Amino acid sequence: MPLFYPKIRVAISVFGWAALYYVAAHVSLLLDDPLSHVGFVWFPAGIGVAAFLVSDYRRWPWLLAMFFSAQMIADTHFGHEMPIALVLAVINLSSDMAIAWVVSRYAQHKDSLQIVVRWIVATFVISAIAAVLSAGWLTFFDNAPFDQLVWVWWGAHVSGVLYLTAVVMGLRGYQLGRRTAGIKAALVGAIALILMAICAWFIFGAQQVDMTRNQVPWRATLIFALTGIPIILAVVAAICCGNRIGSLALLSLGAIVIYHSSQGTGPFFIRSLRPGESLLLAQCYLVATALLIVFLRVFTQTVKRFDGVQPHRQEISFMYRHDVATGRMDWDGRIHEALHTDPQTMSDAQRVLALAHPDDRATLARLLTAGSDNPEKRDLTEFRMKSSATDWIRIRASWPVVVSEPTSAILVGTWLVGQRTES
């Protein structure tokens, strides 16, 4: 029985992704244009790309089959013509898989910023190709206006990928900020999440914005300016509580914005726009919020990596020459200043050894003897030296090279003096 557990987990994962894909397709088709077969909102694109990104290549055919079935069921439920729906489903899923493949293929050995940029560029380019193919097929089969459909299809697909992929990847645990939030941070994040939902509900529940002079001029400007408040609160929630809460905030914000925009209310429902265009504006707003959190995530990860290597970058290198017979050490720099001691101390091997941390004294003793000439010891060795009454300085040292002279052996090596440490 245990042999079947991995297969059961894979099957549950695939069916779970298919269920999410169907729900996203159902919601999107509720908001589409039944005449043109092109939705102003297409959330399944983000679900598909995220599923392909987090799954092994071996699962892709199964995901592809399940997503195709889910989309066909949704199209059948809404009474779409099968010849049109079949081709559009193939184009949709092919573009989703292509975006995920490009990101996965070229993300190896790249930093997070390059991966995000490649994801955005791949989404824009591949979605444009898919939009041309889809609009062309609708024009050929149903005599639909190509120029009006292509940009709608492209905008819906791009926004669906960028928004929901960021949400799903965040919910899966791609972390922003600290992994374990403290009580205060969790409280601030929870308050920010609640305030974001309340503010978004009232801001996007406002009546239609009349851009003519019949209204007070500053009212429309004020409503547009207020849309920045939910973005700020979503970012606060993500930073305080991690990216899962940030993604939950994004998901909640998206549900509120799309709902009110589809009902004809909110700052993005402008009377001069054509039907459906307010939904595209709302999606652009959500995409901008999602990308802001994604880039903040990349920035924080970069800062963490920089902080991790910063102590090594601040190390000062000193070469030395040690006469084993006399114990004299000559340095190429003012190492005594870095260690806060005097030149005489650093000129005598025994006095240098006395400055070593008790736990590291044996390591330093091996470095200061001729027997340290071991060709297998290529890595740097760390030890601590006393800097003051309470501080220790961490040092990394190369294993010395033995230079034989007529009267004694000379050791030549390098010390990298780093940051202070308390122990």
Would you give an account of this structure?
- It is elongated, with a radius of gyration of 31 Å.
- It has three domains: 1-172, Arp2/3 complex 21 kDa subunit ARPC3; 185-310, no CATH class; 314-421, 2-Layer Sandwich (Beta-Lactamase), CATH 3.30.450.
- Residues 175-179 and 306-313 have low confidence and may be disordered.
- The longest helix has 37 residues, at 277-313.
- Helix 7 (183-204) packs parallel to helix 10 (243-262).
- It contains 15 helices and six strands.
- 34% of the residues are buried.
- It has 423 residues and is an alpha+beta fold.
- Strands 1, 2, 3, 4, 5 and 6 form a six-stranded antiparallel beta sheet that branches.
- A hairpin with a 4-residue loop joins strand 5 (401-404) and strand 6 (409-421).
Describe the structure in brief.
The protein is of the alpha+beta class and 423 residues long. The protein has helices at residues 5-30, 44-54, 60-77, 82-106, 112-142, 146-171, 183-204, 217-226, 228-241, 243-262, 277-313, 335-338, 343-346, 349-354, 361-367, and strands spanning 316-323, 328-331, 381-386, 392-397, 401-404, 409-421. Strands 1, 2, 3, 4, 5 and 6 form a six-stranded antiparallel β-sheet that branches.
Write the layout of secondary structure elements.
Elements: H1 5-30, H2 44-54, H3 60-77, H4 82-106, H5 112-142, H6 146-171, H7 183-204, H8 217-226, H9 228-241, H10 243-262, H11 277-313, E1 316-323, E2 328-331, H12 335-338, H13 343-346, H14 349-354, H15 361-367, E3 381-386, E4 392-397, E5 401-404, E6 409-421
Antiparallel strand pairs: 1-2, 1-6, 3-4, 4-6, 5-6
